[in-house]
């Protein structure tokens, strides 16, 4: 489970930027949090709003960049430990609107939890080469993290858990040492970390081709879950089949005791989007994976988007700590009946064309009070009180009721 993600000098983001999945001390929706009696509660969902060009997609791309950088070499050599769903490799492109940043490395830092351990992975990249890298681990009840490895330009230092006389510390500068260890050695702590990276699902529905990449299984349990979820959203499909000869997917419906088939290509845009996205979402919920989706709301009716969000916030369905991070323009879901205040984030560019993000929970009015959980989030956002449209200069402006 992702706890926190920080980065700097990536695309439209110049300064240090942090997206936090650690839950704040808020009264609303406590029963939806991912809990462990000895650790900080985590959020199951985070959504990013903001104007076009504000940095929403770049925020998700930053997270996609570090994941794809680690996973790609392992996958290319077919050394991955489990099935993963990665759209494409994302390059580490620095902030280009000043002469200094464009020549500096791009940095990423991830804190994530696996069972009773919390890991911190850091990597610094410049021109596709690794400048610096480290991996630390601590028990969720512990205070001091233990080094697994550290990598600087002068060499690699190994911690106790991976230190072996035969361990190779000479690695191609373009390859993360985490990936190198995962490819060449069977080390439990490295396997655990690499499995987490591989479990992250990255999708962008800004790319229309993604809607034609559909994951459908033949086993009865999976099929029933998928069909039931579609029926819950008033899409009355009773079955499906894939025609191997013609490479076509057909959805079946029963009307007045007669069964009819409709090819996937003839379904409505919204139904096609759901048929493509829902299997990935159900897969993540079954295995407790992280799902990163750009423009999840595209072509979806707002009620359907709310249904997808509710799956992650229902602990009877989300039993294994799956998390959803997505961007949206949909105002119908920007409500206190859908999200906690710390689950809502805004991205926007300032006057220097630098993107910044902040959560609704961080915003304060002129009276220095936080936005109340009874506020009309959608209305206040459209009025410009949250500062994500058009500039961050209004972030602290306005009075809140």
Structure description:
With 401 residues, this protein is of the alpha+beta class. The chain has a domain at 2-204 and 326-394. It has seven helices and 18 strands. The chain has helices spanning 56-76, 177-184, 188-199, 220-232, 269-287, 302-313, 377-382; strands at residues 2-8, 17-20, 34-36, 39-42, 45-49, 106-114, 117-126, 129-139, 146-152, 155-158, 201-204, 239-243, 248-255, 258-263, 290-294, 323-327, 344-349, 355-359. A hairpin with a 2-residue loop joins strand 9 and strand 10. Helix 4 packs across helix 5. The longest helix is centred in the first third of the chain and has 21 residues, at 56-76. The protein is globular.
Short overview:
With 401 residues, this protein is of the alpha+beta class. The chain contains seven helices and 18 strands.
């Amino acid at each position: 489970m992702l706890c926190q993600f920080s980065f700097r000098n990536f695309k439209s983001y110049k300064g240090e930027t942090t997206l936090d999945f650690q839950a704040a001390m808020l009264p609303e929706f406590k029963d939806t949090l991912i809990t462990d009696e000895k650790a900080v509660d985590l959020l199951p969902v985070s959504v990013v709003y903001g104007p076009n060009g504000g940095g929403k997609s770049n925020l998700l791309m930053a997270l996609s960049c570090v994941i794809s950088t680690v996973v790609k070499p392992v996958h290319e050599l077919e050394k991955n430990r489990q099935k993963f769903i990665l759209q494409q490799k994302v390059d580490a492109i620095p902030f280009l609107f000043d002469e200094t940043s464009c020549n500096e490395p791009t940095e990423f830092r991830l804190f994530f939890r696996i069972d009773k351990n919390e890991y911190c992975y850091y990597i610094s990249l410049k021109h596709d080469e690794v400048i610096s890298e480290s991996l630390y681990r601590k028990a969720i009840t512990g205070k001091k993290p233990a080094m697994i490895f550290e990598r600087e330009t002068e060499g690699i230092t190994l911690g106790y858990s991976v230190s072996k006389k035969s361990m190779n510390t000479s690695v191609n500068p373009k390859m993360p040492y985490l990936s190198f260890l995962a490819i060449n050695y069977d080390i439990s702590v490295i396997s655990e970390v690499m499995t987490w990276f591989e479990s992250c699902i990255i999708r962008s529905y800004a790319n229309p081709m993604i809607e034609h990449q559909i994951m459908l299984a033949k086993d009865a349990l999976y099929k029933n879950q998928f069909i039931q979820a579609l029926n819950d959203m008033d899409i009355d499909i009773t079955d499906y089949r894939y025609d191997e000869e013609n490479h076509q997917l057909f959805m079946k419906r029963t009307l007045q005791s007669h069964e009819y088939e409709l090819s996937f290509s003839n379904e409505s845009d919204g139904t096609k989007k759901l048929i493509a996205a829902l299997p990935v979402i159900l897969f993540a919920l079954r295995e407790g994976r992280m799902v990163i989706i750009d423009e999840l709301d595209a072509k979806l009716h707002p009620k359907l988007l709310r249904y997808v969000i509710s799956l992650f916030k229902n602990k009877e369905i989300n039993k294994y700590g799956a998390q959803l991070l997505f961007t949206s323009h949909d105002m119908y879901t920007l409500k206190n009946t859908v999200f906690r205040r710390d689950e809502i984030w805004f991205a926007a560019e300032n006057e220097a064309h630098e993107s910044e993000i902040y959560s609704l929970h961080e915003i304060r009015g002129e009276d220095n009070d936080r936005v109340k959980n009874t506020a009309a989030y959608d209305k206040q956002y459209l009025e410009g009180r949250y500062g994500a449209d058009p500039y961050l200069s209004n972030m602290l402006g306005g009075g809140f009721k």
